[in-house]
Amino acid sequence: MREVYVVGVGLHPFGRFGEKDVIEIGREAVVSALKDAGVEWKKVEAAYCGTVFAGPMAGNKVLARVGLTGIPIMNLENACASGGSALRAAYQAIAGGFSETALAFGFEKMPRGFIAGNPDDWFATLGLAVNPQYFALKARWHMANFGTTEDHLVKVSVKNHRNGALNPFAMYRREMSYDEIAGSHMVNDPLRLLMLCAPNEGGAAVVLATKEVARRLTTKLVRLAAVVLDSPLYGTVEVPHISVSARVEAPTVTMTASREAYEAAGVGPEDLDLVELQDTDSASEIIYTEELGLCERGEATRLLDEGATEITGRIPVNVSGGLLSKGEPLGASALAQVVEVAWQLRGEAGPRQVNDARAGLTHVYGAYGNCAVSILQR
């Protein structure tokens, strides 16, 4: 297996952009990444696109606007892990010796409102059709077992909106006060409106290359040390809850994927300088902080109370503002995390820069337990 490096990253801002074409959103992200890499489009040997709502052959449509060069283009749909799936495919192409350079990109123009599944599914007919219901059930489970309070849920959102105010690519670029969040409308107890991320629009792209190519392009080498894509084991509780075993308790998919990523990269959670994780809601940040091994079960709220997850803390979490501030265009969210960590490791994150960041982890979790974890190092 060859080493794989991130040589270029690009973002289209996250938000709402009226009548702007979803394909144009994707094109702008790709062009931005190519410019950042200093790579001619004709030098890219393969492309992998992650999207959920952009329709069939969406990646081909984007790249037709960039230029038809005859390369293989693969379109992947894997819920919130679609972008992570595209990254894994591009990583494998280079690591396996099939390509010298590859592009992973994702984009979306999400419908407004909650993300709902198939209305014909049996659980949908019972009223369990939209994601916040499952997030709230998990939140209540954590509160019952570990003493997490609504105060902690508010604090996560306050932190991430404070970070998002520093991110020009975020949808909500302003701080939100404790009282504003605590007083927002109750959606699914205990989750209030400003504790939930908003589906929206945006795009992200990453150019990967071999070490030899990377050395020719930049002196700021960022290695993609691991990319893992897992589905869950039987006995875990996922979104949606198709079934729950009364006898089998298995490690969650975030636990298994992160352990595999640590092993592949030759590091542990103690070696990380920052983490971008799936904060679809405030409780999810707390739960995934623990499942990624950043602390023991039930200890994430202590990290939060101590300020350890702040930009200046011991293990900063969601310095980009996370999904709570950026919003979530499904196909782009995982790759946007990689963009943020790459900027951090290159020392290019501006006012939200983590001091001397040398290693970072990204994590996304999607419907039916699709989970992607990557580790970047310099």
Kindly describe this structure:
By secondary structure, the chain is α/β, with parallel strands linked by helices. The protein has two domains: 131 residues, Thiolase/Chalcone synthase (Peroxisomal Thiolase, Chain A, domain 1), CATH 3.40.47.10; 227 residues, Peroxisomal Thiolase, Chain A, domain 1 (3-Layer(aba) Sandwich), CATH 3.40.47. Helix content is 37%, strand content 19%. A nine-stranded mixed sheet has the order 3-2-4-7-1-8-11-10-9, with helices on both faces. Strands 5-6 form a two-stranded antiparallel ribbon. The longest helix has 17 residues.
Mean pLDDT: 95
Backbone structural class: alpha/beta
- Net shape: globular
CATH class of the largest domain: Alpha Beta
Largest sheet: 9 strands, mixed
Name the CATH superfamily assignment of the largest domain. Thiolase/Chalcone synthase
Radius of gyration: 19 Å
The total strand number stands at: 11
CATH architecture term of the largest domain: 3-Layer(aba) Sandwich
Keywords summarizing the entry:
globular, Peroxisomal Thiolase, Chain A, domain 1, nine-stranded mixed β-sheet, single chain, 378 residues, 2 domains, 11 strands
Short description:
With 378 residues, this protein is an alpha/beta fold. The protein has 13 helices and 11 strands.
Produce the secondary structure layout.
Layout: E1 4-15, H1 22-37, E2 47-50, H2 58-66, E3 73-76, H3 82-95, E4 101-109, H4 122-125, H5 131-146, H6 150-164, H7 178-182, E5 186-188, E6 191-192, E7 201-210, H8 211-217, E8 222-230, H9 253-265, E9 274-276, H10 282-291, H11 300-306, H12 322-326, H13 330-346, E10 359-365, E11 371-377
Parallel strand pairs: 2-3, 2-4, 9-10
Antiparallel strand pairs: 1-7, 1-8, 4-7, 5-6, 8-11, 10-11
